[in-house]
Specification:
By secondary structure, this protein is α+β, with helices and mostly antiparallel strands. Helices cover about 25% and strands about 35% of the residues. The longest helix has 26 residues.
Length: about 300
Amino acid sequence: MIPVSTRFERTIAKPAEVEGIGFITGAFVHLRFCPAAPGTGIQFLRTDIAQSVPIRAHVGNVTGTQRRTTLGEKPFQVTLVEHVLAALAALRVDNCLVELNAVEPPGLDGSCLGFIEALKSAGSETQSSRRTIYSVESPVILESNGATLALHPCEGEGLKLTYFLDYGNHSPIHRQVHTLKFELGNFIREVANCRTFLLEEEASQLRLLGLGCRTTTQDLLVFGKHGPIDNELRFANEPARHKILDMVGDLALLGADLRGHVVAFRSGHPLNVEMARTLAARLGSAAAARYLLAA
């Protein structure tokens, strides 16, 4: 990993709140975004638990990637954090305390647009600390069970993300692809309102486990044999766009900005987090090397 630039960090100007039903527990959740000091990073704090401690949104604190990304250990852990993190990353909010009174944020409509709207209403403040932007000199490629995720160096500024979705010939979700140039305006127009999706049989299995008891087919995209049930797509390739939303949230766990082109094929939270973990290890090695050279 090589540093290519820096920018000033930002926080929000005032608190902002979001309320709604949690997709997993069915609980009514109150979430509050709060300003935070330079260098704090993003932290989650459970307000429903006495003597709760903040959990930093960093790949080192990830404890689960099955269907969603989970941070921390019980009883303080927080799950399904990727949509909140994607909204914060899109708005370049680097330091923020996220208070919530449940194990998960509000599900809203399965996208992150509601979080973005709340954060935009709070305004932002530029801070004195700086955040480093990194690139790679050669591709970093991860593979697992037929899925791949790669970060390629590329010319120009900023970050691009491409997702190739392929669930096979017999899936009700057709093959699709989307590429996003990661800038706030593009993110809001192309990705922010794209919703969580799952297959009808997956939804049934979750119900049998007692999960999603207050979530209906009108709350998020559930695909039956002939497409979405009781719902309509916002884009023909909405699932691929939502996968990019998830990637943005999971890669934010690196705690640094990236420059390059992220290309994914059939990947999900496990590979996203593994990429963040791999890059974090490289950052640590690079920092150690700089320290030795300076000694």
